[in-house]
Each structure stands twice: as structure tokens, then as C-alpha cells.
Amino acid sequence: MHPLVTLAWLLSTVAHKIWALSPEQVSKELGPQLSQSAVISGWDATKYGRWSEYHAPKPGIVLTPANEQDVAATVEYCTSKEIPFLTQNGGHGWAKTIHIDNDGLIISLEQLNSVTFNDDRTEAVVEGGAHVSQVINAASKNNALVQTANCNCIGTLGAILGAGYGNLMGMAGFGIDNILSLNAVMADGCLHTITPEDKDLFWAFRGAGPNFGIVTSAKMKSYPVGPSGQTAWIGQLVFTPDKLEKVVEEIDAITLEPEMCLFMVFLTSGEPDYTPMIALLPFYYGTEEEGRAAFSSFFDIGPTNDTTAETQYAHWNDVTDVFCSKGGYKPSETAGLSRMVPSTWEEAWDEYVSFVSLGGTGASIVLLEAYSLKTARSFGQDSSAYAWRNKVNFNAIAIPWYFDSSLESDAVAWASRLRDLWRSTDGLDSPAAYINFANDEDLSVVYGENVERLKAIKAQADPDRIFNQWFSL
Ligand SMILES: Cc1cc2nc3c(=O)[nH]c(=O)nc-3n(C[C@H](O)[C@H](O)[C@H](O)COP(=O)(O)OP(=O)(O)OC[C@H]3O[C@@H](n4cnc5c(N)ncnc54)[C@H](O)[C@@H]3O)c2cc1C
Questions:
Q1: Protein residue closest via CA to atom 51 of ligand 1
Q2: Atom of ligand 1 at shortest range from CA of 434
Q3: Which of 331, 449, 456, 462 has an alpha carbon within 20 to 30 A of 205's alpha carbon?
Q4: Would you say 189 and 391 are in contact if contact means Cβ atoms under 8 Å apart?
Q5: What's the CATH architecture for 231-448?
């Protein structure tokens, strides 16, 4: 092509993109097809900002649909205009694969946030943008329990479409094990209801959901409970560093009963000293007496501080609210583990102490999550696209957390070192990562042996790969 022709083509392409993405133009072209309550605006980081600013998308347009027909019209519009788009729910996805800049559009699901129950409270319909706090509040008022993630700020389906670990794991399995059907706008721009009869799609949406469409609502199992059925024993036990070896040995050894979950956290005391601390966050679905008995082996090790207490369902996640703070840079890394190795965790602790001594990094945390997995495993490895149901017993996460971008290279290197350290003794045949905690891993690390089946389903359902932000297949 003649250089002048190439230049003219380039200019017209760029001009088209800029022209196509002003809020006024999108309002003019798409507005008439949307309901009156749908909102089209420019990007506003204070309103739509994400949990981590590291590699965060910064779109030209935010479109907030008011109902699922608006979602369908928006997908159809973006596809016809070749506008890249990303669904935003709670805004906590930290994977580097998420990338939208000012020629792209974010579909914010914040207006799709209702949670309703059937008469006998055995089913809940959770809309695509409902946050965990909204689901728990609605469930609590209806005297029912619904499996969600353990932090109030998370998009309920944002977590569940990747698998969905939560406090009710031991009793209800993963979030995906509780899905009865899904309403989703797919690549054809149409709304579909996906049921277990849609064998491949029902399997693929539950573990790799964001690759296949925008879920506008999910019908989920709900568990009716009486007044005492909303009580759990939760809190924080602090241990001195010399107890770390014993704590880790015990996490490896203990059999978590269905009522139990356990987190270990490296964190600091905060301002002004930022003293590094080791804390356990036990969870027991039941009374204080039962909880203390179930976790007695950790009390035998000798915590120096104990804030545990009986807590009602609507407040179960208060203990993790501190992790919800938005803003700052958090280039996090993860590793799935089959076992806990004390020497690895002692090395991880030394790494943590050294990193938070840098200054400006004192909000950083290291997290280890352990759940009772018997019920989740009873559904069978092939029941969903989540690859690590039978292999991973623990998930470890390093979350560097800083506000001064000059700390980036130290932070990225630190988190990668921890991931490599954990992998070196993970006890697995190959590295594994829970997709919702992953950063930029190879597809085989997040999807395991499911990569080829997922790709084949993707080729049918979304041949042009318009849903391409989330470990795209
Ligand atoms: C503080 C914190 C606590 C966490 N706790 C837990 C936990 O207890 N259990 C757990 O399993 N995970 C947990 N996670 C991980 C969490 O599951 C992921 O970060 C998840 O991706 C967050 O979803 P979101 O909706 O908040 O984020 P978003 O960034 O809005 O969404 C994440 C991805 O999912 C897609 N998506 C979201 N909603 C939909 C939808 N309705 N339809 C289609 N695609 C959609 C988005 O497009 C994006 O690609 C936690 C993360 C953080 C930061």
C-alpha cells in the first residue's frame, strides 16, 4: 500500500475510535435502545476505581445498564462497533490479563443488584452485580444462608464464576456447586438461560464464566435456617513468630470439619510502628464453645491475643473488611498447595518482615486459606470447569500493598519470589493457581487439564473471542 494511503487509513481508524467513544456519541447511537435508567458516562476513577490500581483498566466510557436487556443491547453495540469491553462487578479482579484503555468501555453491573428468594427459601436469584454484603444481608433477613465469598466488597458472581470459596464450603461446597441455572448475555448479543441440560456451557460457565458471557443473574441454592442457624464463632488469634513452625504443622495436620475454615495472615500492626504479626482467623459455624473445642490444638500452642467471639451472619465478614480497602497498588501472586511445609513458611515470614521494613509497604499481607473440602469434592472433579478441586488443599497469596509507584519493582519481585517459594514445596505435579487469585499465569496453571475442552466450547460459543479479558481461552 502507498505510504500516504496507509497514513490516511491509520488516521481514519484512530478518528473513528475517538469519535465512537465519546459519551455523547454512545448516548446518541445506543441510548435509544436502552432503558431510561441506564447511565452512560466518562471514566471517573473515584466512582468506579478498582481494588488495585496496578495495571487497572482506564476505559473511555462506563455504561451502567439498568436491566438485562440493556446488557444485551450494549454487548451487541460493542460487537458491531468493535469496541473492547469489560464487565465490572466488585472491581477486585487483579489479573494482568484485564486491560481496557480509553478506546474501551466498562459495563458496570452495579444497578443489577437484587437478591430474591422463593417462598420456601431454598432458592435465591442473585443478580449479576450484587456484592457479597448485599447477598448476605438479604439472606440474613430471609432466615437463609447462601454461599458467597468471605469479603463484603466482592462481586458475588465475580467470585463464584471462578469457583467461589466461602465460609460455607464445608457444608455447601464451592459457589459453583450451588448454581442451579444462569441467565447470561453471550457473544451473539442475546440473553440465554443456561441449565444443567446445556451440558458444556453449564460446565464451562462454572469455573471459567467471564470467558463465555455476562451473567445477569444466577439461581442459587439457599439454605433455610432457624434463629440459631446464623451464629458463627470468628475472630483473630495472634501468635509470636517463634510459634510459626507449630502453627503451620497444625494447619497441615488438622482435619477441618464441615463447620470449620481457617486463614493464616501475615500482617502488620499498622501505624505508627507497622510491627509484623502472625494471626489466625478461625471460623466455626456454631457456638463459641463448639468453636473453641474444634480449634483447641491452636489454643494449646499459645496465642498472645484472642478477639474471637460469637457473631451473627450479617457480621461474619466484618473481620475481613480491612482487606476490602480500595486504591493503592497490589500486584498480587498466588500458589495452590497440597501441603503445608513449616520451613517454607518460615522463609516466607522472613521475606514478609524484610519487605514491610522497606517503608510504605506496611499494609501488605500474606494470606493462607484452608477449607473443609470433603463436600466440595463429593460433587466430582468433572462437575465443573474448576480444575483444582481434588488437588489443591490450601491457597497462598502474597499481596504487596503500597501507594508510591516507585516501590513497584520491589513489590513485583517480592510477590514473585513468594509464589516461587511456595511452588517449590507445593507437593503438586505441576503449578496450580485458583483463577480468581491468579495474575498472569499460563492457561494450564489456571485451567489445568480443562484447557482443550474449554477452548473447544469457546470456539463454538464465542468464535470471535469478544469476552477476552479473563485468562482468555
Ligand atoms: C479483598 C478480597 C477478598 C477476596 N475474597 C475471596 C473469597 O472469599 N473467595 C473467593 O473465591 N475469592 C475471593 N477473592 C478473589 C475474588 O473472587 C476475585 O478477585 C474476583 O474476580 C472478584 O470479583 P469482583 O466482581 O469483585 O471483581 P471484578 O474485577 O469486577 O470482576 C472480576 C472478573 O469477573 C468478571 N465478572 C464479574 N462479574 C461478572 C458477571 N456477572 N458476569 C460475567 N463476568 C463477570 C469481570 O469481567 C472480571 O473479568 C477476593 C479478592 C479480594 C481482593
A1: 92
A2: 11
A3: 331
A4: no
A5: 3-Layer(aba) Sandwich (3.40)
